[in-house]
């Protein structure tokens, strides 16, 4: 061992005793911090997974048919309903004083707590409430009669009771005397007739009204362009009158058919009897579905469950959005997110490309980057106010003045709509795309740029053929983050286009076929509306969970599609790094 090695060994031996306490201390090695960080990560994962399980469970069980209990209370009243949920509570002094001594003793033995169950009693037009709490000590007897039905109606929510009679062609027949197959056939015919009537009133008559309105607007446009008394305006008015006369004949024919269907629909009626004897008579077509809740087979329950899911995914909302489907909201969410991606991608990528590749790095570029980062922290409602003021009122109002003067003062683009909502959310998410794109561009090795330039390529050719393709996975990551955030935003949409109910999709057979100026529905706003704006929060709670499941699933599918594209790009350039 030479002199240098002996000196190094001596120095190490002298240093070890002095640092032995620090070396063996677990705090010095960072183990407590490692455990704390790992525990925080595990807790976060558990919370996320738990939330998803809670939402999935409540959403998946929402449409399962439940039995109907008929309870005879101690005071002689009779209550029928679906059990919704149970809880323990502490009865008040006034309630306890009315109870029998043995009941009070039983509650006192349970630390003063009693159990109660929330039942969905339906029949809102009779009882003026959808749900009722029933304490266990109030119940004298519970039965599950086989003849009780659960009927889902177009209005007033579900009806719980018995099917008393069916009126066909002016003759009333007892429901018990009608075979099940015949009752199913009558209901299918009534629903088909109702669908045809709705198609006439909404689609066919709506199309005729649209053409009549277009002729009226054409006359108004000619008057604005040439003057109200000009020859061109009079000629255009005469042509419009001829066309409107033909359209009016078509309208009268459709109205006649609609009246005939409506009369046929009123001729087939049912009488429903509640558990207390109250009766309701309504058209058979007003029943969306009905089934014997306590006598239905497992196969029948599966059919009801699947039919409810199909209605939820393919139909429009009803009963203040607490029942029916969410198809308009699904379409609106998907269309808005797609337009958001189309708008935010070029602006975000071009801005990041200029800042990273072309701009001279200095104080101005640093200020711009700081401003972009600060934009990501601006509250989303501020973007909504800006979108309403700039996009709708300024830009949209200018478009109306230039291209749609005949429709004023009714706005076309000068109000909230699908286009302005998408651009507002694109502005909200563009900082995410800019930052992610800059990071992706910076991650491309400088040697690739220098090699391309050394081979004679220009700077733009190098960026287009070398830098951008290899940065594309990172750019896709930014787009995925922007898409996920934009799809879940609600506050800005409340100002720039989303509405409580818009059953008609912004797509029809009239040019330009896709109408981006129309208001639309959104799954996020639908959740807010049902959870906080419905007449009964308990009635809306199931729809909140199932809509949340749908929104999470829709975002998941869109993100998975983008991730699959990103992974393909990664594999394509995996072996080309040097």
Care to describe what's here?
Strands 6, 7, 8, 9, 10 and 11 form a six-stranded antiparallel β-sheet that branches. A hairpin with a 4-residue loop joins β1 and β2. Helices cover 61% and strands 13% of the residues. The longest helix is centred in the middle third of the chain and has 47 residues, at 180-226. The two termini are 43 Å apart. It has four domains: 3-60; 69-148, SH3 type barrels (Roll); 161-292; 327-506 and 513-576, MetI-like fold (Orthogonal Bundle). α16 (523-532) packs antiparallel against α17 (537-572). The chain has 578 residues and is of the alpha+beta class.
User: Residue share in helices?
Assistant: 55-70%
The number of helices is: 17
Average pLDDT rating: 87
Low-confidence regions: 19-23
- Given the C-alpha coordinates, what overall shape results? flat
- Count of all domains: 4
Give me the strand/helix succession.
Answer: HHHEEHHEHEEEEEHHEEEHEEHHHHHHHH
**Which structural class is indicated by helix and strand composition?**
alpha+beta
Q: Give the name of the CATH architecture of the largest domain.
A: Orthogonal Bundle
CATH topology (fold) name of the largest domain: MetI-like fold
Largest sheet: 6 strands, antiparallel
CATH H-level homologous superfamily name of the largest domain: MetI-like
- What proportion strand? 5-15%
Radius of gyration: 34 Å
- Cα(first) to Cα(last) distance is 43 Å
Number of beta-strand segments: 13
Q: Briefly, what CATH class of the largest domain? A: Mainly Alpha
